[in-house]
Amino acid sequence: WLVIDRKVYDVSRFSKLHPGGSRVISHYAGQDATDAFVAFHNDKSLVKKYLKSLLIGELAPDQPSFESNKKKSLLEDFRELRCAIEKMGLLRPNYIFFFLIFLHLLVLDAASWLVVWYFGISLVPFLVGIAFFTIAQIQMGWFQHDLGHCSVFKTPKWNRLLQIVVINVLKGLPASWWNHLHNQHHAKPNCFRKDPDLNMHPLLFSLGKRLSVEV
């Protein structure tokens, strides 16, 4: 069970069919998932159609609709901030900007190979080719990141399709693997054993006296 806008849903069976993966939902088992639901789903009206069949009740009036480890006032401030940002149109994508990003990635990638092909593999052309290729690969990683967040196109289908082209074809990595891990990261950021980005050696990759804890 999980809570969205004070309504309780049984997602036991649906979690296996969830497009974002079952682990993202399981991280919110028995908790309030309102903010994660809002952040992950652009088309709320479409998703709420599926929620109707999963509804099993509502929270009692005396039950809080937020996680026990979070401050209510801070949550309300962030929710107001998000509403203000949406009304200002700051979350609407600029298609010309993303087209130019994609175009310059292709130009850099092609240039890296053309330099080596035309000038040979002597030191200077080789280093120039490496520089072009490295910049292209890094920028591709950020571009597919925006696509993975469904931030470029209005519909998830086109975001996923272009993400596959960028990360699968141009970078040689599986989009499904990246989405599976990154969705969990944003569902439970900085929560040990739930955020895959924290699954690193506790001594070699930890800074400061206070380490991440399991929530």
TrEMBL record:
A GO BP entry: unsaturated fatty acid biosynthetic process
Q: Where is the Cytochrome b5 heme-binding domain?
A: 1-60
- Keyword Transferase appears in the UniProt entry: no
What's a Gene Ontology MF term here? oxidoreductase activity, acting on paired donors, with oxidation of a pair of donors resulting in the reduction of molecular oxygen to two molecules of water
* Entry keywords, A to Z: Fatty acid biosynthesis, Fatty acid metabolism, Lipid biosynthesis, Lipid metabolism, Membrane, Transmembrane, Transmembrane helix
Q: Name one GO cellular component term.
A: membrane
Task: From the record, give the transmembrane residue ranges.
Answer: 89-108, 114-135
Q: What Pfam families is this protein classified in?
A: Cyt-b5 (PF00173), FA_desaturase (PF00487)
Q: Which Gene3D superfamilies match?
A: Cytochrome b5-like heme/steroid binding domain
What PROSITE patterns does this protein map onto?
CYTOCHROME_B5_2
User: Hey, which pathway is this one from?
Assistant: Lipid metabolism; polyunsaturated fatty acid biosynthesis
Q: Does the keyword Lyase apply?
A: no
PANTHER family linked to this entry: CYTOCHROME B5 HEME-BINDING DOMAIN-CONTAINING PROTEIN, FATTY ACID DESATURASE 2
Put simply, this protein is called FADS1 desaturase
Q: Which organism is it from?
A: Anhinga anhinga
